[in-house]
Amino acid sequence: MKANFFYMLCFLIVGTWACKNAGSSKISINGHKYTLTKDEPGVNAKEGDYVYFKYKVRAKDSVVFNSEVQTPVVKFKMPKIEKSDPKASQPIMEILANMSKGDEGTITHVIDEELKNKLVCQV
Q: Is 56 inside any structural domain?
């Protein structure tokens, strides 16, 4: 009985710690789901700031694009982020507006059927 209680207590502690460190899902201004997996203290990027970042595009378990292969660090001036049509929005820009130096995050961008058809490579 004591062993079962001990194991359940350990499971509860580990489960609570894992959920706390997993990051919480949030929704961007245009409805894209994102999670900050590493949230460092600091001021978030704002319009006019220069931001530097690396990114990967994944589809299921495959890496479709890796910016480190093409360009080690992407750099640009942060534009103004406004509410717009989710299909025309830029999910990467939206998550960058909610990040500070040292943060890491994941954003989910659902691709609709029309865009999927444009991306299909015909041989």
A: yes
| CA 58/CA 67 separation, integer angstroms | 12
pLDDT confidence tier of residue 62, bands split at 50, 70 and 90: confident
pTM of the model: 0.62
Q: Which of 84, 86, 79 is nearest to 32 (CA)?
A: 86
Helices (H), the chain: 2-21, 67-70, 91-96, 113-119
Residue 32, in any domain of the structure: yes
Domain count, the chain: 1
d(CA 46, CA 77) in angstroms, rounded, equals: 9
Identify the domain containing residue 101 by its residue range: 24-110
User: What is the pairing mode between strands 74-77 and 62-66?
Assistant: unpaired
